[in-house]
Amino acid sequence: MDRVDATEHFAQHAQGDLPSLLVLIIDINPIPWTTNPLSTALPFNTALSNLLLFLNAHLAFSHTNKVAVIAAAAPRGGGAKILYPAAELPTDTKGRPQSRPPQPAPQPGEPNKYRPFKDLEEGVLAGLGKVLASVNEEDDGTDRTVVSETRIAGALTLALAYINRLAGAGADNLGQTLTKGTGTTEAGTMQSRILVVSVAGDVASEYVPVMNCVFAAQKKHIPIDVCKVAGNSVFLQQAADATGGVYMKLDAPNGFLQYLMMAYLPDPAARQHLVLPTQANVDFRAACFCHKKVVDVGYVCSICLSIFCTVPPDNICMTCQTKLAHTVGGMVVRKKKKKKAGTATGSGAGTPTVGTPRP
Amino acid sequence: MADSDDEYIGSSGDERGKRASNSRKQKGAGDAGKERWEEIQRSWDNVVEGADGSISAAVVGLLEQNKRKRLLKDTTPLQRGIIRHLVLVLDLSIAMEEKDFRPTRFLLQLSHACDFIKEYFEQNPISQLCVIGMCDGLAKRISDMSGNPVEHISAIRKLRANGVEPKGSPSLQNALDMARGCLWNSPTHGTKEVLIVFGALHTCDPGDIHMTIKAMVQDKIEVRIVGLAAQVAVCSELVKKTNSGSLAGYGVAMDEKHFRDLLMANTTPPPTRQANTNASTLLTMGFPSRFSNPGHPTLCACHSNPITSGYMCPRCMARVCALPTSCPACSLTLILSTHLARSYHHLFPLANWVEVARHDVKKRSPKLCFSCERPFPKLAALPPSSTVAATGDLATKRTSNAPVPGVKAVPSISSTGRYACLDCGKWFCVDCDIFCHEEVYNCPGCEADPEGKEKRQREKEALAAKETAQTGQSSAAQGDAMEIDG
């Protein structure tokens, strides 16, 4: 009992000073949301209201906390888009915002609603409506067969750029910006994290961009949390593992709100005191480039790092067309290299082998 | 000693004087007879007053220029040595006691070396490193060749904790010989590099250093040097000979930040030179799976520490605690596919973005940065384009709609504060430009709006087709003999 004293209170204060930014990425791919096991357990509108509740809870922690919401769509289902906060349009000379859409009339029924909650709710719904409308409207003859995979790299890149903007905003005045060195953008001004609510699988061609995002997030200490409502995604598993985020595959999607509140609400500062769900088995297996087979012992081209499950025919790398030597089998074979642009400079002369005369 | 240090004249006390004379030597050739101190750049000359008499616009422009300066990378995809073997040679000689870098050269070197090692392994996860020190005319091994950054950093920290003081003279030859020994049995598919921090102006060698340089060339070891005092002839010769005649790898630091930049430039894998090509090979690598059995710790094969979770070698089932490593039992290289992915951005660099010209900013063009939605500055608030004459040729490039492959952006401020990706045509602010090129290596426009990119690609192709058709037609009209059948 005597451990309950005032010091805890002070400690909490010191940590709570740092504002926390939560970037939520919602997968709006229609196919998984409307297929049966998920559509009955967790319809999209229920999920959305749960998410709004969750975001409100985040905002309620501190008035300095911030939220951003980004939509990620399927290939050919519209791109990634920031839904909230709505873009601030530059004002014209008279201080009027240029071509701002007409403000919705204030809802008469909820005069007592906390303002940030209301702004958030209206902003997200309006943004989502706009994105869906634009997808429906646009008909430029492209093939719109929606697939059950979702492009996540664009949304992640947007999220990182947005975090970068907010984190750098504190150092906007002249002196600080000048002295700011490469890559030392103060992440200390704001604690950021990304939460991906994902329902679909990966787009295989996105591996490199997704991984680039993951490494950037890792470098800036931004955890990527993943809430896997349905489907399976190896990329996101690796993302959560590499950045120290929480990855959870929901067994019972109808308890969505509880999952969100229990596992994803605590910010990184609070997490070190909590026991959070961990992933026992992360899928780290590599798929070979030749047969898309999952391998555990493979062959890697030393030039382009392509993975093969067997020695490629004629020892020629299928990606970069280099003739490779397989060292285990004895002699290393010299190869004739393709001349690449740029390498010619400085290499033409070769290295003189004659030493300089001694003094 | 006498036959190798022809640059060394007096005691190390006159380093200051030597530095001045040397820097003159460097510069002197270009501008006839003008001394360095005669070219004075006044920072206030660069500032142009705006129409309303304020300089805020010019200041914004200068800030942007400063930021943008860092982005002038060549983005031609080169073949690079991704698997590197590097020996980092630190100078622990008496010259490092100098206080011209704060707090001292020695302490700054140690802290920068730690940062370098961290960054090196971040950029080159499947590479190896080893640290050597030069003091008392000897080369001393600080840490062994390994791929674990923690070992190197703790070895360097230990130097400081043990109170090692810089003393004696450095010996380039001994250091190079030891480095050669370290790189002796590194595999042929990797690069062999030596990076030397050289604070002294002389070297104290037991034999002929030129023989050692020759041996380095034969072994295809590339040597790069960061000097702290002044350019030294033997260093430039060493760099030139081991880098096929290019002196790009030798830089002399002007201040603390420059020192750091010079070091960090070496974290990017070097482009493969034709003269230096090693055999590329097919490597056998293992992609281990993770095991975890909480409550039942096992000993790891690499350090004999009890662990509850780790990785298992797929070939011999030995358990290791950290990756990447080579299996202690069967010496198979064990990595994760994420380690390979970390190097991909060197192989597929993001193309530079070009400045948007003033006359391309129309009433209906985007008003917000595509990625962070920050509003662009209004044209009226920007400095007049006369201060930024260099944008001209880029502007014409852009309007002609022909993306020049690997456009080398001229170091200039955008007169509009807007930067455009040539692939997707989206516009970005300068902060996003820097962030995307230095940290994410993705274009937000190309990733977030792949359809827009494809559409633009199609338009471009259509335009190109139209142009060729037009030229075909005009030539037909001129020739008056060709018939185009419908």
Automatic annotation (TrEMBL), chain A:
InterPro entries: TFIIH_Tfb4/GTF2H3 (IPR004600), vWFA_dom_sf (IPR036465). Residues 99-109 have a biased composition (Pro residues). One of its GO terms (molecular function) is zinc ion binding. Keywords: DNA damage, DNA repair, Metal-binding, Nucleus, Transcription, Transcription regulation, Zinc, Zinc-finger. One of its GO terms (cellular component) is transcription factor TFIIH core complex. It holds the Pfam family Tfb4. The keyword Cell inner membrane does not apply. Gene3D superfamilies: von Willebrand factor, type A domain (3.40.50.410). It is found in: Nucleus. GO terms for biological process: nucleotide-excision repair; regulation of DNA-templated transcription. The keyword tRNA processing does not apply. Residues 90-116, 338-359 are annotated as: Disordered. Residues 342-359 have a biased composition (Low complexity). Belongs to the TFB4 family. Component of the general transcription and DNA repair factor IIH (TFIIH) core complex, which is involved in general and transcription-coupled nucleotide excision repair (NER) of damaged DNA and, when complexed to TFIIK, in RNA transcription by RNA polymerase II. In NER, TFIIH acts by opening DNA around the lesion to allow the excision of the damaged oligonucleotide and its replacement by a new DNA fragment. In transcription, TFIIH has an essential role in transcription initiation. Component of the 7-subunit TFIIH core complex composed of XPB/SSL2, XPD/RAD3, SSL1, TFB1, TFB2, TFB4 and TFB5, which is active in NER. The core complex associates with the 3-subunit CTD-kinase module TFIIK composed of CCL1, KIN28 and TFB3 to form the 10-subunit holoenzyme (holo-TFIIH) active in transcription. This is General transcription and DNA repair factor IIH subunit TFB4.
TrEMBL record, chain B:
Residues 450-464 have a biased composition (Basic and acidic residues). InterPro entries: C1-like_sf, Ssl1-like, TFIIH_C1-like_dom, TFIIH_SSL1/p44, VWF_A, vWFA_dom_sf, Znf_RING/FYVE/PHD. It comes from the Eukaryota. GO terms for biological process: DNA-templated transcription; nucleotide-excision repair; regulation of transcription by RNA polymerase II. Pfam families: C1_4, Ssl1. Residues 468-477 have a biased composition (Polar residues). Residues 85-238 form the VWFA domain. A zinc finger (C4-type) spans 313-330. Residues 1-36, 449-486 are annotated as: Disordered. Keywords: DNA damage, DNA repair, Metal-binding, Nucleus, Transcription, Transcription regulation, Zinc, Zinc-finger. One of its GO terms (cellular component) is transcription factor TFIIH holo complex. GO terms for molecular function: zinc ion binding. It is found in: Nucleus. PANTHER family: GENERAL TRANSCRIPTION FACTOR IIH SUBUNIT 2, GENERAL TRANSCRIPTION FACTOR IIH SUBUNIT 2-RELATED. Belongs to the GTF2H2 family. NCBIfam families: ssl1. Component of the general transcription and DNA repair factor IIH (TFIIH) core complex, which is involved in general and transcription-coupled nucleotide excision repair (NER) of damaged DNA and, when complexed to TFIIK, in RNA transcription by RNA polymerase II. This is General transcription and DNA repair factor IIH. It comes from Ascobolus immersus RN42.
